[in-house]
Design goal:
There is one protein chain. A hairpin with a 2-residue loop joins β8 and β9 (about 225). The protein is globular, with a radius of gyration of 22 Å. It has helices at about 10-25, 65-70, 100-105, 110-135, 145-155, 160-175, 175-180, 185-195, 210-215, 235-250, 290-300, 305-315, 355-370, 415-430, 435-440, 445-455, 505-515; strands spanning about 5-10, 30, 45, 50-55, 80, 85-90, 95, 220, 225, 230, 255, 260-265, 270-275, 280, 285-290, 320-330, 350, 370-380, 395-405, 440-445, 490. The longest helix is centred in the N-terminal third of the chain and has 25 residues, at about 110-135. It has a domain at about 5-35 and about 60-70 and about 235-315 and about 465-520: FAD/NAD(P)-binding domain (3-Layer(bba) Sandwich), CATH 3.50.50.60. It has about 525 residues and is α/β, with parallel strands linked by helices. The chain has a seven-stranded mixed beta sheet with strand order 7-6-17-18-19-16-20. A five-stranded parallel beta sheet has the order 11-2-1-15-21, covered by helices on one side. Strands 12-13-14 form a three-stranded antiparallel beta sheet, with no helix packed on it. α1 runs parallel beside α10 (about 235-250), α1 (about 10-25) packs parallel to α17 and α6 (about 160-175) packs across α9. The chain is about 35% helix and about 20% strand.
Length: about 525
């Protein structure tokens, strides 16, 4: 069967690419390996009556332009804000962040830090605006066109004042601890802010470059509010279901349980794909929502790649150190420091009291395979969404770091996943004594489970490490940041392309623009 374009993977970026291409008039087909569309952005029932977001679990980075042009609200998507951004339980105390109370809360630990917060927030907002500005732009490629793009995208940086330029450079090169130490003195606020630096990042907050990961997680917005976090009613799958409906409305087709075995290349050009069931689909354009490590290590014959590119892909870093769980609860957790129900139950609940704790977690994982005092962020979306659990009951998402993609001494994650899940539950129970006894069911995704279920090599939720050598024009590798891969007609449209991971839709949007630019007859749609 012949199409104008085939998308490998029906994750959110694949759906975005398909939408824009189909809207421009191309005959587009999506090959999705699983029996449900959405990739890692899905909602699943994991126990009778209990549903939750399976992998991705919160809304902030989704591009407003993409959501508006796909008319996701008209297709059923509704997002609500968290009542509080974060809640950090401590031994005998706590810190609440958001809802206009951050400064007063921080003042309990350090009046000096409370006074510094407005300037810090203003500075970070200026720098986050630069990331927002670049998110929907294609990084410069090679040649004169690439030089022109480099000048156009870099020129606005000259408009930053000297302090802003220094901080932007520091964010790309320094550790999160160094950056935060330059602003604050108290441990709790540095823990809450520094947590963002290790989300999906198998590294310490002391690792050079971890400060950028902090920035990557704050340049989003929800419900029109910059830096806010939200929840999609019905779970994250509501986003991709709305996207699938938008794709169907433009004429794009979606094939479920169509796992791609190979990208077919003839004379240096992509000509189609062969599925695991033996069928062959033909198209002159192949856009991969699968990550670079999966695409170039498993789906593309090495002989079809330039030797230097194949070598670069051998060294492409993937593995985010993530362990993901969902639990069904008979009741809300009762935190020792704040036991009664309140806005803190609707926040991102961070169990990692200090940067030192986070550093030890990474060091432990490097030697032992997993942290014996893990970092946990818990969300309880059923406090905002009664479609996820029976009346009176709840579901909780447990996003956990640091867990090595490959365990030492020949161990397999299949052998220890239950033990590690128990450890994570005990970690939460140390702060909420009723938590363990309230668990009715649990869904476990080790790094290996994430790889097998979603095609995330090394369990990497971002399709590749977010580090200076794998960012912007160097994502996935320098010379191919413009979504065009070294095989003619093969494009990268997923999180392994700029601007990276998270449920943004930006890589899919940008890839579609470049595909259309290469096919002038369809380029009437300007993105």
């Amino acid at each position: 069967m012949r199409h104008d374009a085939i998308i490998i993977g029906g994750g959110h970026n694949g759906l975005v690419t398909a939408f824009y291409l189909a809207k421009a008039g191309l005959k587009v087909h999506i090959c999705e390996a699983r029996d449900v569309v959405g990739g890692a952005c899905v909602t699943e029932e994991f126990a009778p009556g209990f549903r939750n977001s399976t992998a991705s679990y919160t809304v902030s980075l989704l591009q407003e332009k993409v959501a508006a042009e796909m008319r996701l609200a008209d297709h059923g998507l509704r997002v609500v804000l968290r009542p509080l951004n974060n809640f950090l339980p401590l031994d005998g105390d706590y810190l609440k962040v958001g809802a206009g109370q951050t400064q007063a809360e921080v003042a309990r630990f350090s009046p000096k830090d409370a006074a510094a917060l407005p300037a810090y927030d203003a500075r970070l907002e200026v720098l986050a605006d630069q990331m927002r500005r670049l998110a929907l732009k294609t990084p410069p490629g090679r040649g004169l066109k690439g030089m022109a793009a480099l000048a156009a995208q870099g020129w606005p940086l000259l408009g930053l004042d000297a302090g802003e330029q220094r901080d932007l450079f520091a964010l790309f090169t320094r550790s999160a601890r160094e950056f935060l130490d330059g602003w604050f003195e108290s441990t709790p606020i540095k823990a809450v802010l520094g947590f963002d630096s290790i989300v999906g990042h198998f590294a310490s907050p002391d690792t050079p470059g971890s400060a950028y990961v902090l920035l990557h997680h704050v340049f989003g917005q929800a419900c029109g509010i910059k830096g806010a976090w939200g929840h999609a009613i019905g779970g994250m799958g509501a986003i991709t279901q709305a996207m699938a409906r938008a794709c169907a409305a433009t004429g794009a087709s979606i094939g479920l349980e169509e796992r791609v075995a190979r990208v077919n290349v003839v004379g240096g050009k992509a000509v189609g794909v062969t599925l695991c069931d033996g069928r062959t689909l033909e198209a002159p354009v192949i856009a991969s929502n699968a990550g670079p490590a999966l695409l170039f290590r498993q789906l593309v014959d090495r002989a079809d790649l330039p030797a230097d590119f194949a070598h670069a892909m051998d060294g492409y870093a993937a593995g985010s150190g993530t362990f993901r769980m969902n639990v069904a609860l008979s009741e809300l957790p009762r935190f020792s420091v704040l036991p009664e129900p309140g806005p803190h139950h609707g926040a991102g609940i961070i169990i990692a009291p200090s940067l030192d704790y986070m550093d030890r977690a990474f060091t432990d994982a490097k030697t032992h395979g997993w942290s014996r005092q893990p970092i946990v962020e818990m969300l309880i979306p059923s406090t905002l969404d009664d479609t996820l659990a029976p009346p009176g009951a709840h579901v909780a998402s447990l996003f956990c770091q640091q867990f090595a993609p490959t365990l030492p001494n020949g161990q397999s994650w299949d052998d220890v996943r239950g033990t590690v899940a128990d450890l994570i539950i005990d970690t939460v129970t140390a702060h909420a004594p009723n938590f363990k006894a309230s668990i009715l069911a649990r869904q476990i995704h080790s790094p290996l489970d994430l790889e097998r279920k979603f095609g995330l090599i090394g369990g990497d939720i971002f399709h590749g490490r977010i580090s200076l050598d794998q960012l912007w024009a160097a994502r996935p590798v320098l010379g191919h940041g413009d979504h065009r891969m070294p095989i003619k007609g093969l494009y990268l449209c997923g999180s392994g392309a700029h601007p990276g991971g998270g449920v943004t839709g930006a890589p899919g949007h940008n890839a579609a623009r470049e595909i259309l630019a290469d096919r002038p007859v369809y380029a009437r749609l300007r993105l």
